[in-house]
Amino acid sequence: MDGGGGAEVLVGKTRMACKHILLAAAVVPLVMVLVGLPRATARVNIGAAAAFPRPAALEPNIDFWIKAFTYWSERDFVIHDRDHVWRVYQKFHMPGRGVPNREEIEWSNAYLKAKYGDILNRLATGQQPVGWEEQRVAAMFKGQPPSAYAQAARNLRVQQGLCEQFHDALLRSRYYRPKMEQVFAKAGLPPELVALASVESGFSARVRSSAGALGIWQFTRSTGREFLKITRYRDDRLDPVRSTQAAAELLQANYAALGSWPLAITAYNYGTAGTARAASEYGGDFTKIVQNYNGPHFGFAVKNYYAEFLAAAQVDRYENQYFPGIENEAAPPPPPSSPILRRIIHHFRRHHHPARVKRVADSHRRSAAAATHRHHQSRRHTGGLRRAARARGADAQRSSLASAAQERGLIAR
User: pTM for this structure?
Assistant: First the structure.
């Protein structure tokens, strides 16, 4: 699907919706009380609340991701602590309109990290905070030693807002969610697990990660081959139904191996074996794993994966409260396929269509019959030439013998 006027209107509406959310952020707590909007920190009674526990220690992380998904726009840059994501130092809004370019993103990251790196390192020397910004930062570390500031200075991270992206993912999900929930229900899985697709790809089949993960469910080639057919001309990771069935199989296997959904969902990102090692080290206590486990590649994305899922599931359930009016928005149909899928379909239809296969087979049979006929004709022709050559050779030999006899007779006389 091309980026025509309809797409531009949709993007404009999305940005306006996020802008309205940001303007209303100051009165959100009051509105929540008055009209019952689920707070970011509230325990939401989703269909499988018992299956998807929300540890109290994880609530601040869930709140952070709900804000990233619904309150912070694509031009908002939030600097926070990597391990304590709820420790937000500042939300910086990049002036301008539209998606920020690479230069703007890099500048925002450098500016915020330099600013708060300097503040934290200065406080780490034991100096008293100067100015309201340093005082605000110092209040976050009340009762902690100066070394905590130095550690925090090494732990800075910048999160770009995802409001527009998540809004559009909710619209795209309308085309996939009913079938996906049906597949999960048939497999005996909670349908709320479909929210993982929001975290993985935003329900976009065109997403390819730096690790080569592809499709709505972001299977890598190695993992995908355990559940899907992946060849040069066919990649089931691009098929929404087949990839959903594969995701259901993988989640089933993870749950059977690990025994809880927090661990099984984390294993979808980190791997079953790695999650099992973490669980054995901390007795299956998910909170302790997130806070303390330091295994290989157990980084920011893995530690926050389950919290992101819970945040996505909450926003999915209450989408109209987080994005007022979204239920009345028309979702543009998804593109018929990605460029690679179009090439695969074209090649398959060209080379594997039944009529094409029949034509190729008939052509091969005709070619084989013609080759056989030419071979026999060549053998008959070659045999005739050889017989004629032998006959000419015999005649020449007889003529030579007769001439020799005549010569001997003349010499004798």
Answer: 0.73
